[in-house]
Amino acid sequence: MWDYSQKVQDLFLTPHNAGPLEDANAIGEVGSIACGDALKLYLKISGDGVIEKAGFETFGCASAIASSSVLTDMVKGLHVDEALKITNADIAKALDGLPREKMHCSVMGQEALEAAIRQWKGEPAMPKTQEEGKLVCKCFNVTDATIIRAIRENGLKTVEDVTAFTKAGGGCGDCRDEIAEILEAELRGQGAPAPEPAGPAEPAKSAACGTGGLTNLQRMQKVMEVMALIRPQLQADGGDIELVDIAGKTVSVRLTGHCQGCAASEVTLHQVVEQILRQQVEPDLAVEEVK
Ligand code: FES
């Protein structure tokens, strides 16, 4: 289970500035749903370069939602030149930290911001690192420029660090040797000892990209992660939701207290939970309520 800060939990459950911005004049899009995380950042930028409004749509884990949300708060009122100085470490800091394995969510936020501002400036609407770099990780579409930037800005020392911050190497593992070479060159350049050679590839905890979907264990971990974030809110309202079973793509839950039979607008609570799990875990999950 990830150790999320209170701020991440709060912004996951009640994100700020969620949804597309009707009058956006800059949009930055990074990641892909097929790869497990995607972010579309909308900005409304004034003629003299001040970010007046920001919104986002994201598909990903709690960290991706919280990172996107806090980023929209951070950039509002900033001139684009100031906004471009925001690093992924700044995003993680604003969330009172992110689990190391989830740091790629903060990198995704930084890259979406850069892509949006580049579009506004009339440049290619992608992070500079993608435009200029050589593709290293085909599973997650990560270039050497993104890897080098993550190494330099975050002081990364191992291939596992690079995977945590960029997702590169977290799928089939074919790129791990190349990541190790990049790391070695970077660390040598900084006068640090060469890194350990990459070990055998391990499947990424959240990777669904190009691997035919989540394993049962990955699915279970992700469902439990999301449920752990939903429960405190229900408990605060005098109810609760209990995970009974996960069989294939069917998640069985039991609602108790005030949650029994309660409905949010025209959908039942277990349908709301189903929607959340479909967004956060897998799009074809089904949730059934057991008594
Ligand atoms: S090519 Fe990088 S993990 Fe598959």
Our Rg estimate from Cα atoms comes to: 20 Å
Number of helices: 11
Helix-strand makeup class: alpha+beta
Calculate the terminal CA-CA distance, rounded to whole Å: 27 Å
CATH architecture of the largest domain: Alpha-Beta Complex
Q: Ranges with pLDDT <50 over ≥5 residues? A: 191-212, 263-267
Structure description:
The protein folds into three domains: 6-123, Sufe protein. Chain: A; 133-211, BFD-like [2Fe-2S]-binding domain (Arc Repressor Mutant, subunit A, Orthogonal Bundle), CATH 1.10.10; 216-289, GMP Synthetase, Chain A, domain 3, CATH 3.30.300.130. It is globular, with a radius of gyration of 20 Å. α2 (62-75) crosses α5 (103-120) and α7 crosses α8. It contains eleven helices and ten strands. Helices cover 42% and strands 19% of the residues. With 291 residues, the chain is α+β, with helices and mostly antiparallel strands. The protein has helices at 6-13, 62-75, 80-83, 88-94, 103-120, 128-132, 144-154, 159-166, 176-189, 216-236, 269-280, and strands spanning 26-32, 37-45, 51-59, 135-137, 142-143, 239-247, 250-257, 263-264, 267-268, 286-289. The two termini are 27 Å apart. The strands form four sheets. A three-stranded antiparallel sheet has the order 1-2-3. Bound molecules: FE2/S2 (inorganic) cluster.
